[in-house]
């Protein structure tokens, strides 16, 4: 499986140091066997990141005796197996599955915490940084349930390692400091010290003092943590080179390069060899630089997306170019560009993962805070209820008042919404629909599936200004209200009747052809003329001029229909008012009109007032 440069290191550093003290066997063979199993488990656990060969041998012995293990021991063996699959077995997916199962099923909180830490690292190995961070956030809060201090330290070390890899060095240093402040065991102190050293190096906080780095290197070497010691050497060498001591850096790396190579971790070997090749090339040792660069790129198959591989190819490219081998230099440059791009993509992926999870965490924290507030309120309510009955009744009363207030304001809000909608869609004087509602209704009709005809009747009251000027605006308002009442009685529920201007009205009739629309207009005209004005205290006649059209003539467009109807309305005005003018009424419909009007009961005078264009 392809792994990121940092991934092998993270898991190697995620060692959980559970204290497994064997029981005294005495002379009982069964007790001796149990003690041997526990001792073997403890030995395998201690060797995981220190000695691969002996670790694998211990695993084989444990698997040979697995039928004699109890549930807790089987789960510990499952953890060790998951670790081996991820670090050495090149099957991260299977290792993650085993560790996740333990995280959810293990009864022992210490083992759950170890499994969770392993899963977080494993997702990082699989380059699923976002999922690794998510699982880390599930695991870290459980460290307060862990009795074993060494296992607890592992969780904070995992966090420090992961945040270092994501470039969040301040966070990494914080978690490393948490471990170091809790009297850690030598291994945990080695890991935490390394993470703190790396974070301070990246943050530029080491200055020219390398004493702390050398001290940490000595401590890790003393307990046999070869992988961590190798990483510290690379970081120390970088620090020496950056502070103007490249020869010291070269010496430091050359003294242990064979030892690091023998460990067998591809990432560490590539880091070591690549850094050494860069330093040797800068010092003029072309042969040594070439040899180490080639050794570094030999590890490329297992660590795609590593900075070390890009640096090694760059060294080979520079050497070939200087030696006058352009074709070889071009090939190395191409590989360098590919490796450099892979590394940059890796960095971007890590940064994106951190930002995504940080946003998710922020939202989750807000939700948790809200839930905490709600829970606190519930606890307070329960405390009050546990007091005397009077206080309980008072609390119930207060809750009822609060509920009533909410309901009241919800009711008021609903009424306000309805009122606002009514004002937005209706004419406040007459109660008829306004032009806005009329336009929206027309859009609905014209965009509905099918080609159902739609007719439009527009009319304008004749001489309405004379009513206002002669009898006052109150009388004019009364006339408008009566016009709306008359027209509403004529319209069907599907029709849309609206006041679209001062004394201008329109009726949108879905499903009606031009003949039906003309009939409606004539009926409306007749009823308006029959309005008795005595109720207003004045005597006057209400008449209107009508313009009629339909979608079959004007198209399914409100603007076009209103334009045609408006022209017909003004024609009716010019021709004497109190009449209906229809846009392009077909002859067949004209001949059929007298019979339709006769059956509808319209007065005989209506026939003489129809104008066909």
Automatic annotation (TrEMBL):
The keyword Transcription does not apply. The chain crosses the membrane at residues 394-411. Residues 452-585 form the GGDEF domain. Residues 363-390 form a coiled coil. The keyword Nucleotide-binding does not apply. Residues 1-25 form the signal peptide. It catalyses: 2 GTP = 3',3'-c-di-GMP + 2 diphosphate. Keywords: Coiled coil, Membrane, Signal, Transmembrane, Transmembrane helix. Its EC number is 2.7.7.65. NCBIfam families: GGDEF. This is diguanylate cyclase. It comes from Luteimonas terricola.
């Amino acid at each position: 499986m392809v792994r990121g440069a940092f991934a092998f290191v993270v898991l190697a550093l995620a060692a959980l140091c559970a204290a497994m003290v064997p029981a005294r066997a005495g002379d009982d063979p069964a007790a001796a066997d149990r003690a041997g199993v526990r001792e073997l488990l403890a030995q395998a656990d201690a060797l995981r990141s220190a000695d691969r060969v002996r670790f694998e041998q211990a695993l084989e012995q444990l698997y040979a005796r697995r039928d004699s293990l109890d549930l807790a021991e089987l789960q510990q063996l499952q953890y060790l197996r998951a670790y081996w699959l991820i670090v050495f077995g090149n099957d991260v997916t299977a290792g993650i599955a085993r560790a996740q199962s333990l995280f959810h099923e293990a009864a022992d909180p210490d083992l759950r915490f170890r499994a969770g830490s392993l899963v977080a690292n494993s997702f990082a190995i699989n380059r699923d940084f976002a999922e690794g961070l998510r699982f880390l956030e599930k695991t870290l809060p459980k460290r307060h349930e862990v009795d074993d201090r060494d296992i607890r330290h592992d969780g904070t070390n995992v966090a420090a390692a992961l945040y270092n890899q994501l470039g969040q060095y301040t966070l990494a240093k914080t978690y490393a400091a948490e471990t170091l402040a809790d009297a850690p065991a030598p291994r945990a102190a080695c890991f935490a010290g390394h993470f703190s050293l790396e974070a301070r190096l990246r943050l530029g906080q080491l200055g020219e003092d390398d004493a702390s780095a050398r001290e940490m290197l000595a401590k890790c070497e003393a307990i046999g943590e070869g992988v961590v010691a190798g990483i510290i050497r690379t970081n120390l060498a970088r620090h020496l080179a950056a502070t103007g001591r490249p020869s010291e850096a070269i010496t430091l790396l050359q003294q242990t390069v064979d030892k690091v190579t023998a460990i067998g971790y591809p990432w560490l070997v590539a880091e070591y060899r690549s850094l050494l090749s860069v330093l040797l090339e800068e010092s003029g040792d072309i042969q040594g630089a070439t040899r180490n660069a080639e050794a570094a790129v030999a590890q490329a198959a297992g660590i795609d997306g590593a900075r070390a591989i890009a640096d090694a190819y760059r060294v080979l490219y520079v050497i070939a170019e200087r030696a006058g081998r352009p074709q070889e230099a071009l090939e190395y440059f191409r590989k360098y560009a590919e490796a450099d791009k892979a590394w940059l993509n890796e960095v971007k992926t890590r940064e994106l993962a951190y930002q995504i999870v940080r946003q998710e965490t922020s939202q989750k924290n807000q939700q948790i805070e809200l839930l905490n507030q709600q829970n606190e309120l519930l606890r307070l309510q329960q405390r009050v209820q546990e007091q005397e009955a009077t206080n309980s009744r008072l609390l119930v009363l207060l809750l009822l008042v609060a509920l009533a207030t909410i309901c009241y304001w919800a009711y008021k809000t609903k009424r306000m919404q309805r009122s606002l909608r009514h004002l937005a869609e209706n004419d406040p004087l007459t109660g008829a629909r306004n032009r806005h509602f009329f336009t929206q209704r027309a859009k609905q009709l014209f965009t509905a599936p099918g080609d159902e005809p739609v007719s439009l009747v527009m009319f304008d009251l004749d001489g309405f200004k004379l009513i206002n000027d002669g009898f006052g605006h109150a009388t004019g308002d009364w006339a408008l209200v009566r016009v709306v009442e008359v027209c509403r009685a004529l319209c069907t529920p599907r029709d849309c009747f609206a006041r679209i201007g001062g004394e201008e009205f329109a009726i949108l009739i879905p499903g009606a052809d031009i003949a039906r629309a003309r009939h409606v207009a004539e009926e409306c005209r007749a009823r308006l003329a029959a309005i008795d004005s005595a109720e207003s205290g004045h005597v006057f006649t209400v008449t209107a001029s009508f313009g009629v059209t339909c979608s079959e003539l004007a198209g399914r467009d409100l603007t076009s229909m209103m334009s045609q109807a408006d022209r017909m309305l003004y024609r009716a005005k010019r021709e004497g008012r109190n009449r209906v003018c229809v846009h392009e009424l077909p002859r067949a419909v004209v001949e059929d009109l007298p019979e339709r009007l006769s059956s509808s009961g319209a007065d005989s005078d209506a026939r003489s007032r129809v104008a066909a264009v």
